[in-house]
Automatic annotation (TrEMBL):
SUPFAM superfamilies: Acyl-CoA dehydrogenase C-terminal domain-like, Acyl-CoA dehydrogenase NM domain-like. The lineage of its organism: Bacteria, Bacillati, Actinomycetota, Actinomycetes, Kitasatosporales. Keywords: FAD, Flavoprotein, Oxidoreductase. Pfam families: Acyl-CoA_dh_1, Acyl-CoA_dh_M, Acyl-CoA_dh_N. Residues 126-223 form the Acyl-CoA oxidase/dehydrogenase middle domain. This is Acyl-CoA dehydrogenase family protein.
Length: 408
């Protein structure tokens, strides 16, 4: 187990500087354009693929870094560049992780390359779990997957919503109910291969922020996929369902709490995205406060402004520390006895919202225009307290973990 460290090693610093260069030279200059266009920035994803940032190998390398700092460092730098474009670059990772976590070696080898494509023909993937009536309450999901034994096929019906890359993805990973009695333990994940009949894009959402990231409904009407598209395979699913039924009889809470551990491990990455956006806005505000003069002196000479910057920087550093701690715990298998993963996401996302609002204030009228990036950063930051579990859900998880109550 690696000791917890607050310092990046030389290799990590090199990767950080390389990512920062890409974020500063390629992502940031393109941010305003793709925010206005509200379209997936394919040319930027292609650039990222060319240099090796848009690939599973890159994320796997960061993920398996035993200090736990690889992923948060990468997320912070890319999202420092721009949140919408960075989400377009890392969004495929959500679906890829779904396959890595539950898929067989064959499924991983077959589908992950098709999720990313290659630098000459980049593809994206989507992870579809949320539904119109199942957002925070994942267990109330309605999309059904029914096994057609005669054909060894699964038939999926339902409507997914809020799917990042939904409908434009080459490969969709869809979570569906296979046993309604078991709540979230009766869910299974399916690969929907490219061009499968019955899968279509519903409404594409016009969003407040992260507008360069495509978000849409995904409609599944009698979508038939081969048995081999069930992640993990049928035998494993049957065993898992049998175990879940047995445990449910003995008292279901243990079952539900086990599922929460996965979220604890993935939430710090979202916290790191929020740290990236917050840091970007803080830097713009600091520069502005040092150069903008009113009443014959730079506005930073007023304590009212300087103290805001002091608070902004303090919160950002505190958020990063929580994120790094939780990431280190996740990779080293430390139990999240106080829901430290949720804590990091909660604090970092609330910090991003607050800090970007303070940055708008420090820039005055300019902060309120699209001439300056803090306006966009402020809109972008609002997503962090919503997706991957809202702030209220994080507080609920933390409070219930502390009190020993069941999570749901
Ligand atoms: C831009 C974007 C991208 C997304 N990408 C994906 C994706 O790729 N794949 C995917 O599956 N999903 C995705 N999501 C969905 C996201 O995870 C959900 O929006 C989120 O989980 C909240 O669900 P909801 O929107 O239905 O809100 P609701 O669950 O309806 O919540 C509404 C409000 O009620 C509060 N609330 C709900 N329950 C409680 C409670 N028990 N106690 C206190 N307060 C409560 C919430 O905190 C919130 O403030 C995305 C969403 C957005 C906006």
């Amino acid at each position: 187990m690696a000791e917890f460290t607050m310092e990046l090693n030389d290799e990590q610093k090199e990767v950080r500087d390389w990512l920062h260069g890409f974020a500063a030279d390629v992502i940031r200059p393109a941010a305003a354009e793709w925010d206005e266009r509200e379209e997936t920035p394919w040319p930027v994803i292609q650039e990222a693929a060319k240099v090796g940032i848009y690939s599973l190998d890159f994320y796997a390398q960061q993920y398996f870094d035993s200090t736990g700092l690889g992923i948060p460092m990468a997320m912070e730098e890319l999202f420092w560049g721009d949140a919408g474009i960075a989400l377009s670059i890392v969004g495929t990772g959500l679906a890829a992780v779904g396959v890595l976590a539950n898929g067989t070696e064959e499924q991983i080898g077959t589908w992950i390359p098709q999720m990313y494509g290659d630098a000459n023909d980049v593809k994206v993937a989507a992870f579809c779990s949320s539904e119109p009536d199942a957002g925070s309450d994942v267990a109330s999901m309605r999309t059904r997957a029914v096994y057609d034994e005669a054909k060894d096929e699964w038939v999926l019906n339902g409507t997914k919503t809020w799917a990042t890359n939904g409908g434009i993805a080459n490969v969709h990973v869809v979570v569906a109910v296979v046993d309604a009695e078991l709540g979230s333990k009766g869910h299974a994940s399916f690969i929907i291969p490219p061009n499968t009949p019955g899968l279509s894009q519903g409404q594409k959402f016009k969003k407040h922020g992260i507008r360069a990231s495509h978000t849409a409904e995904v409609v599944l009407e009698n979508v038939r996929v081969p048995g081999s598209c069930l992640l993990g395979g049928k035998e494993k699913l049957d065993e898992r369902l049998a175990r879940a039924r047995e445990r449910a009889k003995q008292g279901g809470e243990r079952v539900k709490n086990a599922a929460m551990a996965t979220f604890e491990a993935s939430r710090p990455a979202v916290g790191a995205m929020a740290v990236g956006t917050a840091r970007a806005a803080y830097e713009v505000a600091l520069d502005y406060a040092k150069t903008r003069e009113q009443f014959g002196r730079p506005i930073i000479d007023n304590q009212g402004v300087a103290f805001q910057l002091a608070d902004m920087r303090t919160s950002i550093d505190a958020a990063r520390l929580l994120v790094w701690r939780a990431s280190w715990m996740a990779i080293n298998g430390k139990p999240f006895t106080a829901a430290e993963g949720s804590m990091s996401k909660l604090f970092a996302s609330e910090t991003a919202k607050k800090v970007t609002a303070q940055a708008v204030q420090i820039l005055g009228g300019n902060g309120y225009t699209r001439e300056y990036p803090v306006e966009r950063m402020h809109r972008d930051a609002a997503i962090y307290t919503i997706f991957e579990g809202t702030s209220e859900i994080q507080r609920l998880v933390i409070a219930r973990t502390l009190s020993g109550m069941p999570i749901r």
